[in-house]
Design brief:
152 residues; 7 helices; mainly alpha; globular; 2 domains
Length: 152
């Protein structure tokens, strides 16, 4: 129990030191939930927070459509421009890779610690965004597959 608090406190401190409000807020909220012993909320977050976060991310990406900032002709141009085609291929690749990441996390859950640490370091040191663990799991799945093919 003390170890988890130390880890969360360290993450909170790193968030403050590196001026990353998402890391500080996330770890701070979890510390508060642990302190007030809202274990049922921790279970709920474990089960649904990823889904809720992805939903909010999708909503943020879709807002320009709702505000009429992107028109149907602009979307149609996506299918005929080099930038648009590259964006479509990249989106497909990212979705596939993240799907592989989910499978890796389901079959090899102990890898989550390394993914979280790497994502946190990427956020703090490289100014990335904390969507990283899922994408990192996909990258790890692809790299592990390549290594297994290379070893044969």
């Amino acid at each position: 129990m003390l170890q988890q608090n130390i880890i969360l406190l360290a993450l909170f401190a790193l968030g403050i030191i590196f001026n990353n409000s998402l890391i500080a807020a996330g770890s701070g909220i979890l510390l508060i939930l642990r302190f007030v012993r809202l274990n049922s909320m921790l279970v709920l977050l474990e089960q649904r927070a990823m889904e809720a976060g992805l939903l909010l991310l999708l909503i943020a990406v879709f807002v320009p459509f709702a505000q009429d900032k992107v028109t149907l002709p602009e979307v149609a141009k996506t299918f005929v421009s080099i930038d648009g085609i590259i964006a479509i291929i990249s989106g497909m690749g990212a979705a596939f890779m993240c799907g592989c990441g989910v499978n890796l996390l389901e079959t090899n859950p102990q890898i989550a610690g390394g993914l979280v640490i790497g994502s946190i370091l990427g956020v703090l040191l490289l100014k990335g965004i904390p969507i990283g663990p899922l994408a990192a799991a996909g990258m790890a799945a692809m790299l592990l597959k390549l290594i297994s093919l290379w070893r044969k």
